Each structure stands twice: as C-alpha cells, then as structure tokens.
Amino acid sequence: MLRRLAGMTALVAANAAWGAGGHHAVDDASILDEGTCKVESWFSRGGGERLLHAGAGCRIGSVELSAGTDYVRADGSSATGHGLAAKWATELTTGVSVGVVVAPGWQARARPRYQGSTVLALATWAPRDDLSLHLNLGRDFVHRADDEARYGVSVEWIPVANWSLVAERFRAEQTHFLRAGARWSFGQGWSVDLSRAQRLSGPGVSDWTLGATWEFSR
Hints:
The chain is mainly beta. Helix content is 8%, strand content 68%. A hairpin with a 2-residue loop joins β8 and β9.
C-alpha cells in the first residue's frame, strides 16, 4: 500500500506544480503575467486519504516555472512527493490559446526517487469574457511501469464579479472523475477554492478539497 501511495504522491506533486487552477485537474492555456509569482496550498480529504499540498511558481521570460510538494496519508501509511513544472502558453487569436506543460515528479525516501513525468497539451477557448472552455490531452510517463493516459475538459463561468464556478470531467491516475467547484477572489491577488471530485470509475477515491492561492508582483 505504501509503495503505491508514494508513487501516486510523486506524480500528484508533479501535476499539482503546474495547475494554474489551483487544485483543479484541468489546466488553462495561460501563464502568469510578467513579473508575477504565486504561492498556493490546499487540503483534500476522501476515502480515508488525506493530502496536503504546498507550492509556488513564477513567470521567467516566456515560461512559468513551478514547484510543489504533497504529503499523503492513508491506512496508517504516509508518503511525500515533490514536483517541478515548466509551462508555456500563447494566444493564437482572440479568445483562443494553446500551451504545453512538462512536469517531472520524485518520491521522497525511496529508490529510485524519480517516479515519472507528465506531458500535457493545453487549449482554451473563451467565447465570452465570463465563459471559458479548457481541454487537456497528455500522458503520464511512469518510471518502471506502464505509461498512462491523462486528459480532461472543463468549463469555467463567472456569474458575478470575484466569483467563478468550475465543472470538469477528467482522467488521472487510472481513474475517471467529475468535479464541481467554486472560487472566490478577494484582496490583493488572493483566492479561495472549494470543490468536490466524484469518482466515476477506477481505483481512486472521491474527495473534498479546500485551497488558497496568492498572486503577487515581484
């Protein structure tokens, strides 16, 4: 159990490092503004598993670079994973953007520590200022194991100022999920997220997640 948990944690940390949408699984095809950084954290609970994430990132030139760490505990066992990510994105035309993410992950206190990498293609279509559609398509290249498909689609709607609602359907860690959540933005670059991920099929578990993000200028 601990071996499976630790491997999963390392890939989760790698994937979490690039998530511009905080803990949401489907990323958008955009990066931080020039001279901007972010710090974020979230806590997930479900099916007897607990996950605590901490991460940070900054835009360096035309690329957003991020790092994240996850601590997972389940069935009396625990594991820690670390991830890095490089994300690039560009606008093709008004309302249409594409991007790519490369994110390797490592497992603490294990041999080998390197657990694999995720490569994702990103696309975003924003037909209106208050509505965006996101598509991710990629793969987890797992070290010493079979590679796994990773993909998802999401819709983000801003019904009123400072509030956004997100719904996403995705596959990650051999599991299909449906997630719905809300985000509240306030103050100088602060936001808080709450979501529910429902397992549709696969070995993963349904969970609730509460997170916070702060974006700031360097």
